[in-house]
Amino acid sequence: MKDFAYLRASSCDEATTEALEPATRFLGGGTNLLDLMKLGIETPARLLDVNRLDLGVIEELDGGLRIGATVRNSDLAADPRVRRSYPVLSRALLAGASGQLRNMATTAGNLLQRTRCPYFYDTDMACNKRTPGAGCSAIGGFTRYHAILGASDACIATHPSDMAVAMAALEAVVEIEAPGGARRHVHLADFHRLPGDTPHIETCLEPGDLITAVILPAPAGERQIYRKIRDRASYAFALVSVAAVVRMEEGRIATARLAFGGLAHKPWRDAEVEACLEGEPPSDDLFDRAADRLLQRAWGQGENDFKIPLTRRILTAALREATGGMA
Amino acid sequence: MKTTLTINGEPREIEAEARVTLLDALRHEIGLTGTKKGCDHGQCGACTVIVDGRRINSCLTLLCTQEGAEVVTVEGLGEPGRLSALQEAFLAQDGFQCGYCTPGQICSATAMIEEAAKGWPSWVSESLEGEAVLSREEISERMSGNLCRCACYPNIVDAIAKVAEARMAEAAE
Ligand SMILES: Cc1cc2nc3c(=O)[nH]c(=O)nc-3n(C[C@H](O)[C@H](O)[C@H](O)COP(=O)(O)OP(=O)(O)OC[C@H]3O[C@@H](n4cnc5c(N)ncnc54)[C@H](O)[C@@H]3O)c2cc1C
Ligand code: SF4
Ligand code: FES
Ligand code: FES
């Protein structure tokens, strides 16, 4: 690993100001950043440790929860309020990584973890995400883990987070502090970007921006489900995952919030799919129509074509369970 | 950079570059070679140590971030003549073959049992809010961050199950 200067921020203000210096990176749990630094994929000149800022608490806010940026994934999954009112989030966190990694990984770091595309990890291969304009080795290569929705000619990578998928279905909001102290709020669904022709720009963050928290709105009595399909039973990234947050009223689907992992460059939500479910009584026929909408523009690369029928099945199973029927 | 921390109960002051991981510091600066380097990328768990009561991967942890921390390695859990319950159980159940993954397995299991005693659920727990019961399925899931190339998993689970049973009975009291 290339050496770097290590700094410890003592306030958010100091962190955002210092982060404006070129080649500076925030350090959360380090489980993604240090991995990438060892491989020479990330080469920061300065690491700014944010772990000692006052961002490690979960507090109640307007009936919901405000989750500090440095709250560990394991503590978030085990928090009694999260287990009771946001089980989809506990489940998604517990489906990710390992006990050790969850003890280190932070809320902000998890949102900002980078793709697991094997060509992104191999510095001998061309990758537009690592080197804009270099080309994409995945297209025409090994694509089992790649996107079927929202991809571009420049990049077909997926976002690997489980936590972010649950947060997207829960309509979470990311709280961001800019240099100078101004705070803004961005819906999780708008936080990550599709690759387009700039796959190296992954989120809406601007230079110096620090994530300070993620805010969950008050729960409204929904049924919450997280399902994840992977190549081994544990300690593996999702091939496809789904978070379903569904509220029933008098035998009909009142609201349905669905987010998918493993399909795209960001946690995937589709307002049309949710609209087609709402107001309807649940049936396999309806779930099939929802899957048709979700997958109408799906596009496989060959090796990942299996994700199309798999997504249809995982959607149906999650909706059966969330609407009260058998999975 | 200078880092001051406690390792296995002993105060230490280590001078090292910022890029030195806790794993390399333990092995090369302190000479505690019980903690192993398998992958150096968070994928195998051989480097697991316990910091402030929590199991972590020391290969993805920078020494300089651990100012003031209390680190426990496999050497700190016990030694010949006064082995910890898990160390004894791994011997009794033949929980290893080559032994390379064993220090990480034992550190991980030591902290995992405490997580369960606090009531932390896992991905395979039926209920998120019920009591944590360490069935074989639960132990395998909670220990999935520790790989064993010799595939001693059945005996590793046996060893952990024995100790977990006693600990959970204690927690229930
Ligand atoms: C073997 C392995 C298996 C894994 N399996 C899974 C899995 O199945 N599912 C899953 O979801 N994840 C998985 N992960 C990924 C893991 O969840 C992430 O590495 C972790 O969540 C990253 O969090 P961190 O705090 O360690 O981030 P860091 O590595 O510290 O940081 C990541 C990025 O976030 C930036 N950052 C950190 N904090 C802030 C902040 N407050 N504001 C702005 N920027 C910030 C950093 O600069 C860096 O760019 C796995 C990881 C490994 C190594
Ligand atoms: S899919 Fe994206 S991350 Fe993977 S090689 Fe192509 S450009 Fe790089
Ligand atoms: S050496 Fe740390 S996880 Fe493999
Ligand atoms: S005993 Fe050989 S790797 Fe586990």
TrEMBL record, chain A:
Keywords: FAD, Flavoprotein. InterPro entries: CO_DH_flav_C, CO_DH_flav_C_dom_sf, Diverse_Substr_Oxidored, FAD-bd_PCMH, FAD-bd_PCMH-like_sf, FAD-bd_PCMH_sub1, FAD-bd_PCMH_sub2, Mopterin_DH_FAD-bd. Pfam families: CO_deh_flav_C, FAD_binding_5. Coiled coil: none annotated. Residues 1-221 form the FAD-binding PCMH-type domain. This is Xanthine dehydrogenase YagS FAD-binding subunit.
From TrEMBL, chain B:
The keyword Membrane does not apply. Residues 1-77 form the 2Fe-2S ferredoxin-type domain. It comes from the Bacteria. Keywords: Iron, Metal-binding, Oxidoreductase. Pfam families: Fer2, Fer2_2. This is Xanthine dehydrogenase YagT iron-sulfur-binding subunit. It comes from Cereibacter johrii. The lineage of its organism: Bacteria, Pseudomonadati, Pseudomonadota, Alphaproteobacteria, Rhodobacterales.
